[in-house]
């Protein structure tokens, strides 16, 4: 399943995309690495990129806009704030042909 065009995701930005059940988001770091996650904060089960969609902190972490939970963009691990050790749910993606593709179907539950 094609998620988005890489041209739509500049380094330091994020992009939101639909999933069969819900929504995902991806971030691209300064080196160009793309990571994708289910767009649900484990703290409050609401979108991580609510608001203006600016997720990156100067520390290099990504931050949930609603309550300040901070996550490692490489793994989705909780780095601090109200996520209380609960990580983001990563999505396995494949980057090819100028786009990001979902590598395997999402499991129910």
List the helices and strands and how they pair.
Layout: E1 2-5, E2 14-18, E3 23-28, E4 34-38, E5 62-63, E6 70-71, E7 78-80, E8 90-91, E9 93-96, E10 99-102
Antiparallel strand pairs: 1-10, 2-3, 3-4, 4-8, 5-6, 6-7, 9-10
Plain-language structure description:
The protein is mainly beta and about 110 residues long. Helix content is about 0%, strand content about 35%. The strands form three sheets. Strands 2-3-4-8 form a four-stranded antiparallel sheet, with no helix packed on it. Strands 1-10-9 form a three-stranded antiparallel sheet, with no helix packed on it.
- Principal-axis shape equals globular
Assembly type: single chain
What's the total number of strands? 10
Low-confidence stretches: none
Question: Order of helices and strands, N to C?
Answer: EEEEEEEEEE
Overall helicity: under 10%
Straight-line distance between termini: 19 Å
Radius of gyration: 13 Å
Widest β-sheet, arrangement of strands: 2-3-4-8
Largest sheet: 4 strands, antiparallel
SS field, number of helical segments: 0
Assign the structural class, choosing from mainly alpha, mainly beta, alpha/beta, alpha+beta, or little secondary structure: mainly beta
Percent range for β-strand residues? 25-35%
Short synopsis of the structure:
By secondary structure, the chain is mainly beta. The protein is built from no helices and 10 strands. The strands form 3 sheets. A 4-stranded antiparallel beta sheet has the order 2-3-4-8, with no helix packed on it.
